[in-house]
Structures are given as structure tokens and as C-alpha cells.
């Protein structure tokens, strides 16, 4: 099994010394890469800027990128050859409309930035997904969680969507633990316990592998 996995944040440059980013640490994505490798899969890990060392497993090829556009281009190169796509990255939805070639100087009392939409990596690749391929997305919602997550599953052509819980202390960005629910196309919801991201990653990989096999039966 060949897995394409995106992880970490993206950095969108403003000028030579500044960027727009987010607080994703990449821990969940890297834990998934390790768990897939442990389960015998080959992984192409496309990683935004993170503080983590590249995984040691020889089954994992790590491609480092910075922007959403670079992440898309790296993902598009391997998407067709991959059996399973997992979109764990926190991709910036917008980037600065202009990247200034020189450092922006301090001037007026306010500064307005114009942002333009980035490519949606999952949705764009989703349009090319073949019936034998399997796609997993992530969603973080604060209102109407299940409805919004299901909407993303349909819009982006996911087979499963992992819904991050924000309600539980110790879950999500920057933590070593996470609590998620997984939704499938039939609308079934599976709830996972709050646990270490490494353990949760193993459980998610088991679920993904079993669903991938079933969809081939
Ligand atoms: N995603 C992506 N490319 C983007 C934005 C999101 O591949 N430009 C992927 C994420 O990796 C995740 C899924 O799409 O697997 C959902 O991301 P999310 O930010 O929750 O969804 P959006 O469609 O961006 O909607 P919003 O941020 O408004 O909730
Ligand atoms: Ca988003």
C-alpha cells in the first residue's frame, strides 16, 4: 500500500522575512506516517514547516514544502500512484495577494493586507480520485460539527473524515493527545477515546486499512 500524507501547517510569505502561518505542529500527521510504516505501508509524507525530525523509517519518504501551492504540487506528483490519500495538513485557506520583494517598512497607524484564496489540495485531487483509491480528510469545527464535517466529506470526495474535538482539554493543536470522531459516507460515526496521538494514529491506520480492503472486496 502506498500512502500520500500531508501534514503540518503551511507558511504563506508576505515579504522576505514574514509569513502567515498557523499553530499546527504536525504531530498527528507524523504519528500517522509512523503508524502506516509500522503497518507495512510505504508513505510519501508531504510536510509543511514543523519542528519535528523527518521520520526514521525507510518506508517513509519526506518531502518538505512551505506554501499551500508547493504542497499541492508535491501531492499532485504522487497522487495518481498512491492507493490512500490522507490530508492531515492545516493548509492556509488564503495567502497574501502580493509577496513584497523587499521587507515591508513600518508606516501608517494601520496596515491592510489583501489575501487571495489558496488551492484546496484535497478537493482538487478529490476530483481525480479513481474508484479503487481511498481518501481521508480532517476537519476542525466549532459549530454544527457533524453537519460541517459531512459536508466536507462530500465536497472533497473523502471516504472518511476525521473530526477533531475542540471540546476536550488536551485535544488538538500542540497537544500530545487527541480526541476524534470519524464519519463515513454512510453517515456512520465512530468515536475514539482521548489518547496519545501515537496510539490514536495506530487505531486510525487500522480503520483506514480495513475500510480500504473492504472497498476492494
Ligand atoms: N485542505 C486542503 N487544502 C486546503 C484546505 C484544506 O487539502 N487548501 C484539507 C485539509 O487538510 C483537511 C480538509 O481539507 O483534510 C478540511 O480542511 P478544513 O480547513 O477543515 O476545511 P476547509 O474546506 O478549508 O473549510 P473551513 O476552513 O472554512 O472550515
Ligand atoms: Ca481551512
Automatic annotation (TrEMBL):
GO molecular function terms listed in the Swiss-Prot or TrEMBL record: catalytic activity
Annotated GO biological process: coenzyme A biosynthetic process
Superkingdom: Bacteria
InterPro entries per UniProt: CoaB-like_sf (IPR035929), DNA/pantothenate-metab_flavo_C (IPR007085)
Domain DNA/pantothenate metabolism flavoprotein C-terminal: 2-209
Protein name: Phosphopantothenoylcysteine decarboxylase
Amino acid at each position: 500500500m502506498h500512502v500520500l500524507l500531508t501534514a503540518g501547517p503551511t507558511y504563506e510569505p508576505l515579504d522576505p522575512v514574514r509569513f502567515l502561518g498557523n499553530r499546527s505542529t504536525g504531530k498527528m500527521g507524523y504519528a500517522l506516517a509512523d503508524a502506516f510504516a509500522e503497518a507495512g505501508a510505504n508513505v510519501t509524507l508531504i510536510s509543511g514547516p514543523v519542528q519535528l525530525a523527518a521520520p526514521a523509517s525507510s518506508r517513509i519518504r519526506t518531502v518538505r514544502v512551505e506554501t499551500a501551492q508547493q504542497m499541492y504540487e508535491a501531492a499532485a506528483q504522487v497522487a495518481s500512484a498512491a492507493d490512500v490519500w490522507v490530508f492531515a495538513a492545516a493548509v492556509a485557506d488564503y495567502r497574501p495577494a502580493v509577496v513584497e520583494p523587499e521587507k515591508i517598512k513600518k508606516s501608517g497607524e494601520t496596515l491592510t493586507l489583501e489575501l487571495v484564496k489558496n488551492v484546496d489540495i484535497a478537493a482538487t485531487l478529490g476530483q481525480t480520485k479513481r474508484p479503487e483509491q481511498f481518501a481521508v480528510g480532517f476537519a476542525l469545527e466549532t459549530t454544527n460539527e457533524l453537519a460541517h464535517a459531512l459536508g466536507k466529506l462530500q465536497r472533497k470526495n473523502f471516504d472518511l473524515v476525521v473530526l477533531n474535538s475542540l471540546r476536550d482539554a488536551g485535544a488538538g493543536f500542540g497537544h500530545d493527545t487527541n480526541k476524534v470522531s470519524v464519519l463515513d459516507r454512510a453517515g456512520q460515526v465512530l468515536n475514539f477515546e482521548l489518547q496519545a496521538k501515537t496510539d490514536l494514529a495506530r487505531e486510525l491506520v487500522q480503520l483506514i486499512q480495513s475500510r480500504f480492503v473492504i472497498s476492494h472486496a
